[in-house]
Write a structure and sequence with these properties.
With 852 residues, the protein is an alpha+beta fold. Helix content is 45%, strand content 19%.
Length: 852
Amino acid sequence: MNCVRSIIIFLLVCLTPVWGAEKGRTTEVFRWERLPDLPDSLGVAGSFAGVSNDVLIVAGGAHFPVSLFNGGKKVWVDSGYVLSRDVHGLYAWKESFTLNRPLAYGASVSTGDGIIFIGGCDAERCYDDVFRVVWDGEGVRQIPMARLPKPCAFMSAALLGHTVYVAGGQNSLDPPIAADNFWALDLLDESSEWKELKSWPGPPRILAVAAAQGNALYLMSGHDVVPGSDGSFERVFLTDAYRYDPVQGLWSRAADLPRSAAAAPGPGLPLGQSHIVVFGGNDGEYAGREMELRDNHPGFSRDILAYHTITDTWVTIGEMPVGLVTTNAVQWNNGVVITSGEIRPGVRSPLMYHGIQVPIKVGFSHTDYGVLIIYLLVLIAMGFYFSREERTTEDFFLAGRTIPWWAAGLSIFGTQLSAITFMSIPAKSYSTDWTFFLYNMGIIAVAPLIVFCFLPFYRRLNITTAYEYLEMRFNPAVRLAGSASFIVFQLGRMGVVLYLPAIALSAVTGINIYLCITVMGVLCTTYTVLGGMKAVIWTDVVQVIILLSGVILSIVLIAMKVDGGMGGILHTGVEYGKFRMADWHFAFNAPTVWVILIAWFGNLIAYTSDQAVIQRYLTTKSEKQAARSIWTNAVLTVPASVLFFGVGTALFVFYRYHPGMLNPELQTDAIFPWFIAHELPSGISGLVVAGIFAAAMSSLDSSLNSTATAVVTDFYRRFSDTVTDRFCLNLARLLTVLLGGIATATALIMVQFNISSLWDMFLKIIGLFGGSLAGLFMLGIFTKRAQGQGALAGFIISIIIQYLIQSFQAVHFLLFGVTGIISCFIAGYLASLFFPAPESSNKNLTLYTLTD
């Protein structure tokens, strides 16, 4: 009871700081603060700006020393300034420098190696100069780069990956005709020149918005300049927008900007994983009346527009302190800086503003937190309940072989349904389509193979881990290699399955991410240590029921909130191609239908060589019940996949109807938890989010128990014949605590150093071992000639082949599992031919010698 009381106090103390949160969201995304004015007291328009080595640089531009309305002439400047922030957070202009010539109305792009200044003009002509501006800590260096194909000014530019794209502009000042230039420069190749690419299908333009988001480049609005009937030139305000796919080299149409904020020439920047933000602009309402209005001109739009690249929608997300055009928006110091600009026609301003992103109000209420706490306490109670029956290692590892087939089947499904999967599948169909749906159907194709060709060996040999079979069939070295590769994979996986869900859960609940990880890690370790495999399986069952119910409820509520209900979801999904299931192109480096059909056999990895799954087969009373559990998982995969992919499509339709309800800073993978927290009724959202917590813990508890099982059975007990079962049980519990602590600490480190990408790469490489490991089992079951030394050699050769395939990206990652199986099987068999054939008859160890 003291332990239960301590856990209750732990949960209450952890979650009390966020208890007062209520459902809702803020509409303002930025909070604006004034920065020191530009040292040029008149301000400039058309300047270059960017960040180099953590300082902000603003250079060039043009202004009117004498008012335009008093006959003043525009003057181009060559001055540059450096703004820095000290350790106390105070901003100050620390340095000035001079460009090679007065220059304005070009484009600038910040890179990791400095700011690239592109083109521009003065009062006489346009230039093709391109140079890099670098702050080295003491001064500014200007380094020449490859020249543009033509002189150009008033263009737009953006950096996508390692390529700079330039779009539009005009190539001369007389005549000032807009151009449809579209050029690209690869920054990785220092000797490369600018390439001329196919232009967008719309009109030429100057002063457009260019921004990169995801894997695409977007070009929006601007002005076209056309000859007038009297020989003059007039500007046509544009609202059209286009998307460029650099892989296919194709343009497609995007949603037009709202006419009330044409955003020409307001600057734009990517925000989050799927938004582009446009700051202010000129809608042309007062175009041609500048001399009439003079200082009474009302100025330019202050609206901040957000374009969502997934739903192809626009929404207003706030206002700027003042409307500025022909300015720059530069990402700096966790926000965006607007660098001087034109406040009214002919009037510049030295004003500088820093927009700091406002934390989005969380969607959890008092009731939701109460439900979450109760749910987590129930999990602990289940651990205590089942701890009464944990007397032997068979109880701890295999639940005493007393689990019903349907519960084992739900547990297999729940083990594969991690919190990452629960979030990522809806996010995938939300952002793309149903292409990966067919991949999920692979379990149906391989289930008969698992039941009839693999399961009998795991059930009839009276083993605890799958890797014991490898020793019986080959030798101890193969067993240890297989078990060790599984353990290493799980050690890498455990931190990730805590860290990635915690990112999303923290964003939508307001709970500190460190707290999310700690709560999940501590509670999961606690009930796994107490209840062993029984607690793991029965918490899986509860989690699956809650998560599937949450998906169904979400689809129903979405249907109630969109035009046309379920029919509206289907109609809009079809209209935007969200139900596409197959890419019929013949290629093996993309998720084409051919790749997915071949990748079906990659499902063999989890179901034939992963101890976390195979251990479930061993918890039932008989082989027949184990087979039923496999079929239960396979059959459940079909409706569950329809639900998960369906809710992703429904989310797309919902946020297309309600784009203002999106959080621009939210990661795409967190879209479903975001909807759950903000749109489901209080209490229900708390229960479903609690289920996501449980899903993360379900993946972790499986890893903890199966890894402890492998360490004790394949290593300690294998080499310690005299050890007692009681000692092994205590050792398994101690290892579970140790592994839980390692997983929690790893996830916390990943947050602190923001090294998720490194962990992704680590898991990608380690995951390649899975195919090779499954290949060992296939080699043992489907051949009689293969023997120990050859199998071990094939395993090593396969790992090398897999590493090369991954390094050169020879095939799509979905095929990694299949290539691992095939390479290990072929290499192991051929290598075995160089060694003596197995001396034993391999009775009950191959498919050809299997008996009842």
